[in-house]
Amino acid sequence: MKWTTIHPAVLNLGLQYAEWGIAGGNARCTAMLNTFARVIADYTTPPHQTLSRHLTSVVSRHVDFLNTTRALSTSMKAAVRFLKHEISVLSPDLPDEDAKAGLIAQMRSFVEAKIDFADKAIVKETLDKGKIRPGDVILTYGFSSVVNKLLLKAHARKIPFRVVVADARPKFEGQRLLASLVAAGIPCSYCLLTAVPSLTAPRPTKVILGASAVLANGSIMSRAGTASVALLARMARAPVIVCAENYKFTETLRLDAFVWNELGDSEELSAAAATMPVTSTGGHVSVLHNWRDIASLKLLNLHYDITPAEDVTLIISESGFIPPSSAYMVFKEIEQNVSLA
């Protein structure tokens, strides 16, 4: 497919997605809508065309391009559906400039309501209901923007607690969360995913995780490694709390991570592997440096995994506290409210 008609801002955004310069469902969704606002601002309806029909095809073309740079997240798909719906209900009699201004305002409102306000509501509900208590040792994994906001706000409320940040290669996203928490003065420990079963001092009292999507059966799709953390927590009888905005709830059902997943670059695993000394040069090379020469070896770099609903104690969204078994009911209620709006 040729991308000669793609807006320069979208080309730049796609490059940032591909290089993981922008990562995380909320960050990617916000960046996409902000970029589409520029596309719409620069858009001109061709002669003998209507804005509502032609602009939809323009948006679809740009979405297809972004999907080639990196698979769209559940949150991004929800935002795209919202934008296309808003375009489809535009009155043909509305002047183009007014229509474009209205669409840009609607996209800004989406970010404010579905992400910014939602995160504030999740943080407030979690803290007001005492889900983080004095003396807690909280285990989290990777980086989640809403979990980061929650922990920073709990610290601002003078609640004494500790955080254990678990992480994994090749992205080591937990280091971003660790840097944020340490900068705020929150006592933290850092470990790799493989060390989580051995955690005894301090022993986590609860686990708080983010999500890429909440599936119809209450399972959680999140960064690969999350399912292991949740399973270990259940075995240790520590509650597992998942923070997820309403727009991440979906009617999609996946029983495991192999039904659908996003494949990462295999070379990332090679580059992040342990090293061994090279006596001839005195340097070190990855133990997987020659993996392509081994016919029977394939490196599989999956970005997501599926945490079963039985390993999740509670889901917290802006709608309140939700048991995993009610995830589909919440999705249908959200969809009904959108259709009535």
UniProtKB/TrEMBL annotation:
One protein family per Pfam: IF-2B
Coiled-coil residue windows: none
Protein family: Belongs to the eIF-2B alpha/beta/delta subunits family.
Entry's Gene Ontology molecular function annotations: translation initiation factor activity
Organism of provenance: Caulochytrium protostelioides
Gene Ontology CC: one annotated term: cytosol
PANTHER family found in the cross-reference section: TRANSLATION INITIATION FACTOR EIF-2B (PTHR10233), TRANSLATION INITIATION FACTOR EIF-2B SUBUNIT DELTA (PTHR10233:SF14)
Record's subcellular location: Cytoplasm, Cytosol
Keywords: Cytoplasm, Initiation factor, Protein biosynthesis
Protein name: Translation initiation factor eIF2B subunit delta
Domain of life: Eukaryota
Subunit structure: Component of the translation initiation factor 2B (eIF2B) complex which is a heterodecamer of two sets of five different subunits: alpha, beta, gamma, delta and epsilon. Subunits alpha, beta and delta comprise a regulatory subcomplex and subunits epsilon and gamma comprise a catalytic subcomplex. Within the complex, the hexameric regulatory complex resides at the center, with the two heterodimeric catalytic subcomplexes bound on opposite sides.
Location (main, coarse): cytoplasm
